[in-house]
Amino acid sequence: MPCRADYTRYCECCNFTGKTASNWSKHIRTKKHLTNIENEKLKQQNDKYRIMELELELEKLKQKHSITTNNDASNNTINIDNSNNININIFVANPNANNLTDIVVPLLDELIETNTIPAEAIQKCILQMGELKPLLIRNEQLWVKQLDWKKGEDAEKELKSFCNKTTNEYIKEMNKLIDNEENDKFFEATQLIYMNDLNKDAITRKVKGKMITANYNNTAN
């Protein structure tokens, strides 16, 4: 006699296990099963409409906070958990943040006195601004505030311009040291300025974790 293959079917919405074809066939015709299936369809449809409503709310929030057009959907997520809670993770860069040019760059004399390279001095200034800092890292992408928020290549161009301008100002101060025959100070300055490039990597090195932004979280039932 041939062996009978095991027959097992599980109904998740009813938490029912049918161990025979006859048993399963009877279950899927029961009033309880049909009602649960219909309720599940309604729930999925309601979730779909709810997500559409939340996406509209997200657009309103973006307009309210004057988020620039280059803020894309990859920075925002909508999730529904098993408890039917809808979690919206919205990234809103602080519109009241300081501008990049608001950073108080230390004078060359201060760098020499404390033996501090420009990048570390600027790091300290940025972190002291707290939530108003003009430089953020979000999803491995650079964000810079100068009048408005820029990200990606635009942000890197803005920061590069700031670094170049700052370096040029330090070089002008170094030239004054030569004019004043302050040779010892000039030598120390060359070690700090010429031997340590001022750029994005130098500014974010070691403090990258403190520049990573957090989400604004909203949970709706």
What report would you give on this structure?
Helices cover 48% and strands 15% of the residues. The chain is α+β, with helices and mostly antiparallel strands and 221 residues long. Strands 3-4-8 form a 3-stranded antiparallel beta sheet, with helices on one face. Strands 5-6-7 form a 3-stranded antiparallel beta sheet. The chain has a two-stranded antiparallel ribbon with strand order 1-2. Helix 3 (108-114) packs across helix 6. The chain is elongated. The protein starts with 8 loop residues before the first strand and ends with a strand. Residues 66-74 and 214-221 have low confidence and may be disordered.
The low-pLDDT segments are 66-74, 214-221
Secondary structure category? alpha+beta
What is the count of β-strands? 8
Q: Note the main sheet.
A: 3 strands, antiparallel
Give the mean pLDDT: 78
User: Widest sheet: strand order?
Assistant: 3-4-8
End-to-end distance: 57 Å
Envelope shape: elongated
**What is the count of distinct domains?**
2
Q: Total helix count?
A: 8
| Beta-strand content estimate | 15-25%
Radius of gyration using CA atoms only: 30 Å
Helix content: 40-55%
Question: What are the main properties of this structure?
Answer:
48% helix; three-stranded antiparallel β-sheet; single chain
What's the helix and strand layout?
Blueprint: E1 9-11, E2 16-18, H1 21-27, H2 31-64, E3 77-80, E4 86-90, H3 108-114, H4 118-128, E5 135-138, E6 141-146, E7 148-151, H5 152-179, H6 183-193, H7 200-204, H8 208-211, E8 216-220
Antiparallel strand pairs: 1-2, 3-4, 4-8, 5-6, 6-7
Helix pairs in contact: 3-6, 5-6
